[in-house]
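Chain X:
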Amino acid sequence: MTAFVIEPLCVGMNAGPVDTRQTDGHPGDAGPGRRSYIGAMLMFLVTGGDRPVLVDTGPLDEDWNRQYHGCIVERPAELEPANVLARHGIELADIEIVINTHLHWDHCSNNNLFPRAKFYVQRDELVYASDPLPVHRRAYEKAPGLSPGWLDVWGRIELVDGDAEIAPGVSVVQLAGHSPGSQGVLVDGAVPYLIAGDAVNTYADWEGNETVPHLPPGVNTSLLDCYASFEKIEHLGCEVIPSHDLSLLDHGPFAGAHKA
């Protein structure tokens, strides 16, 4: 019996748009003289199978994010992907499978760090990322002076059409809405876990409110697809792991997902 472990790995702290920057602080400190954070930039490491699987690769350094995306994403040395993985006994060259939930800058900018990896992306996502609507071009780094992270590994992209198993016990589930080819990663178990990507940004979004059972992401290409994806998730019978929830920094690994 294989026991999977899913480890949320922080590779940046999002303090919001540049014009709301406060002085240095810590997560959760929103008082005077403190910087408050609105989300975490995360990778997810799935272990327990025959080889580790990495979900998303995160953003670049703070200067890049400030200049090209107008936001403050702190990434000190200890949050650089290589250092984060090393603390879990993983070298960059150990990763042979990377699943990009979608191709926005904050989920794929470090793809080129992984010299032996293949990158699993929905075909619909790559098609849209190549020629997005003007309102979405910045998210895909389809703008002057920018080269998107997925382009750096063009020859190692494996296109997926819909739902598919990527490795034993680890599958992708297409969850269109935030983008046409957004996908989650389903990890088998008695109660499976779904790494939802930006289909679900936070636990509060998934829990919704008294009138709306689940709240769609603020950035989307189709609200109809968002709600169809919510219904799909409900039918999976899984535990949902959101993409940017700050509480994941205190959660530790999701363990105990088993596959016979």
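Chain Y:
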Amino acid sequence: MKIVVLLAAMTRGGIDLLQSLLDKHPEISQLPGKFYIDEFLEKINNKNNYEIAQQFIDCYPEYFDSRLNIVERHNFLGQNKNEFYLIDKNKFIKKFNELSKNKKLNKKEIIINLHLAYSSASGDSIDEKKLVILQIHHLFRIKSIEDLDFDIACTIRDPIASHSSYVKNLSTFNNKSINPWQYYYHMERNFSHLIKLSKLKRKINVIKLERLHRNNLDVMKNFCIQYQIDYKEILQKSTFHGKLWWGDQVSKKYLNGINIKFENNIDYNSFSKNDINIIEYYLENYIKTYKYTFKGNRETLNFKKYFPLKVDKVIFIQSIKKLNFKNLIFCFYYYLKRLKFMKKTKLDKFEYPAEL
């Protein structure tokens, strides 16, 4: 059985939307959200099969009672936003043990059997399953399974829209302290994750959020062709367990699945004067490869390319106001560290993976 790892190569790139579109395809087995496989594998070391299944339930109780999944708003599913799903834990454990046949499982078998057992407990037939969709979300988690055979599907979007969406939803901009590492990770993800993924030498399918909305039929048919599964109309509906999904809590509004008129909503107040020019200067190759539109004036930056961005300034000012000296030190540390991956020559030479 083929494993396809889903992760976000860019912040707010639509990875959860993509997973919701794959929901209920008869040939796909997946969980209703993120599975932090690295953390899970550490917790089940030397455990027997029953203990592995029980540990999964303990780690992800929201997969068995979606009323617990408030952040992803799986407690507000359905046409009237009043539905949820319940999955029988005993059926899950029974099926996992049946699939495992009391043998010592390897890493791949654990991943596949957990997914198939969950699909079975959800009422799906597992006889037709060809793909396991493993949504790990973050690149660093892939290290725990890099010895396995798998493909990668990752979502991207316009880098200026990504930055704007991230900043708009930062707790920092709600008068709370920003975590300097969190902002560094956002920047590092947007600049470096596709480069790091390419070093894994796996098949990579890049999916643009914009095309996932506007050209959904083409994208999903290409996905089916890629993995030799049948195209189904369900692939155009954003659901979990067949119930309409309205987007996560971070979105702050209800999103009704695919929008063929989708446009990136960019808040230009998220940027200082030179921010857009700086980001587009370094990501020029990325923008051209994926046919995004330049939004800055593309002036010659010279030393301005080293200027801190607006969020850097916010972190600095908040740290001083709150006498948070730890944050103050880290804001300098992560800014300097960031300069190491913002290398124009390296970014311009990189051959980005083709989009699906």
